[in-house]
Amino acid sequence: MLKQYLYLKEINEKGRGVFTKEKIEANIVIEKSPVIVMGAEDRVLLDRTLLHDYIFEWGKDKDKCCMALGLVSMYNHSYESNCEYFMDFDEESIQIKTVRPINKGEELTINYNGNWNDDKKVWFEVQ
Fold first, then answer.
1. Which residues partner with 9 through β-bridges?
2. Which of 18, 107, 115, 123 gives the lowest tally of CB atoms within 10 Å of its CB?
3. Which of these, 32, 103, 38, 33, lies nearest to 64 by C-alpha position?
4. In whole angstroms, what is the distance from residue 97 CA to residue 126 CA?
5. The sheet that has 29-38: what strands, in order across it?
């Protein structure tokens, strides 16, 4: 499930990001996407490629990784994110949900630390 008002847009210095064509209220699930789950041995290989920046740690012990389909892997990081994500290990899917109202034309962001308000430093310089 992917809301039709979401779209990708190029952003200077950041690459691509996810934006909305409409205003979105808080607490709305805007995307639910299946994932492709891979083991630790695949993670070692993926970490040496461009895909490293697009995969998620996966599993209760974070001993696997996954590639999300849909737009999930395209949401940029923000310490003041307007969305959060939820992993369903049984269903092998990730949901994106808004945490506050979002204006038309605004970029949708998630916090790569896993919690939308987590201010722990991430592995790259934040723009």
1. 17
2. 123
3. 38
4. 22
5. 55-58, 64-68, 29-38, 93-98, 83-88
pLDDT of residue 122: 46
Rounded CA-CA distance 115/85 in Å is 8
Number of domains within the chain: 1
pLDDT at 53: 80
Residue 125 lies in a domain: no
**pLDDT digits over 37-61, tens only?**
999 899 889 889 978 888 988 998 8
Please, which residues have CB within 8 angstroms of residue 32's CB and are 6 or more apart in sequence? 1, 2, 93, 94, 95, 96
**Global confidence as pTM:** 0.85
pLDDT value at residue 120: 59
Domain membership of residue 121 (yes or no) is no
110 — phi, psi (to 5°)? -125, 165
Write out the DSSP string of 113-125.
TSSTT-----SS-
Q: Which helix (H) or strand (E) holds 66?
A: strand 64-68
Q: Domain range spanning residue 85?
A: 6-110
